[in-house]
Amino acid sequence: MHERDRHRIIVSVVQARSVATVQELARLTEASEATTRRDIAALALRKKVKRVRGGAEALETAPFGEISSLPFETARTIKEREKSAIAKEAARLCGEGEAIIINGGTTTFQMVHHFAGIRLQVLTNSFSIANHLIEHSECTVMLPAGAIYRDQGLILSPFESDGIAHFRARRMFMGAQGISPYGIAETDPLIIQSEQRLMRQADELVLLVDSSKFHHPSSMIIAPLERAHIVITDDGVSDKDAAMVEAAGVRLLVANLSEEGGVQDVA
C-alpha cells in the first residue's frame, strides 16, 4: 500500500475512534509496526494526529452528529480482494424473488455486483447499495427512515418507528467490526441499534467478515456469535478462529482467494 493511502487510513481510523493502537493500524494498512510508527510520527509532525505511547490519538473529538465508523470510501480500499470473494459467496445464497436485508458496509456492498440477473426484494440502510441496485438491477429497493450520515453513506435512526418493523426477510447480510468468543462487535451505539432492529426482521443472519476481523477487539457487542447462522470469511482465517465459529454452532463458509469462485464449506 502506498504511503499516501496508509496515511489516509490512519487519519480516518483515529478520527473515527479517537484513539488507535500501532497494532490495529498496522493490520488495517497491511504494514509492519515499524512502518506504522514512522507513519504516525510523520502525521504528528503535520498536526494530523497526536502521537501517544503505543499508538495515535485524535487532535479533536468527533463533532455531534457523526458516528465512530470509517468513511465508506476509506473503508472500501481495505482488504478489497477478500471482500469481493466473500460477497460473491454471499450473493450465491440469494434466490429469485426472495426478500433480503443488506446492512450498509463495504463488504456487503460488493454483493450488488452479482444481482444483475436476479429479482429480489431488498431492504437496506445504505445509500450506496440502494443506488447501485436501482441503476443496475431489477430488484425492489426499500429504505428505512432516519438521518443521513454522509461519510458512511448510512441512514440511521434511534427510533423504532423507522419502517424497519414492516419488512420481513429470509436472510440478513451484515458485516461487523469484530468477531470474538464474546460475540459480534461494532464501534458505534447508533449503528448497533439499527443493526439489532434489522436483525429482528430476518429469519437467518449471515455475517460477511474478512479474516482480520477475528482480531479486532471491541467492547460493544451487537449479539452473541450464536445469533448468526452463517459466517463467510476468506482463507486467511486461522484454525483457532474457524474452530471458535464451529463451536458456536454456526456454519462457516471460506472463500478461496487462490481459486476464482472457490469456496469451502467447513461446517
> Proportion of β residues?
15-25%
Number of strands: 16
Structural class: alpha/beta
What is the percent of helical residues? 25-40%
Shape: globular
Report the mean per-residue pLDDT as an integer.
87
Q: Uncertain segments of ≥5 residues (pLDDT<50)?
A: none
Order of helices and strands: HEHHEEHHEHEHEEEEEEHEEEHEE
Distance between the termini: 34 Å
Major sheet summary line: 8 strands, mixed
Give a structural overview.
With 267 residues, this protein is α/β, with parallel strands linked by helices. It is 32% helix and 24% strand. It has 9 helices and 16 strands. The strands form 4 sheets. The chain has an 8-stranded mixed sheet, sandwiched between helices. A 3-stranded antiparallel sheet has the order 1-3-2. A 3-stranded antiparallel sheet has the order 10-11-13, covered by helices on one side. α9 links the parallel β14 and β15. The longest helix has 15 residues. The chain is globular and about 55 Å long.
Question: Layout of helices and strands, plus pairs?
Answer:
Elements: H1 3-17, E1 19-21, H2 22-29, H3 33-45, E2 50-52, E3 55-57, H4 72-75, H5 80-91, E4 99-102, H6 106-109, E5 121-124, H7 127-136, E6 140-142, E7 147-149, E8 154-156, E9 169-174, E10 178-180, E11 183-186, H8 189-199, E12 202-208, E13 220-223, E14 230-234, H9 239-247, E15 251-256, E16 262-265
Parallel strand pairs: 4-5, 4-9, 5-6, 9-12, 12-14, 14-15
Antiparallel strand pairs: 1-3, 2-3, 7-8, 10-11, 11-13, 15-16
Helix pairs in contact: 1-3, 2-3
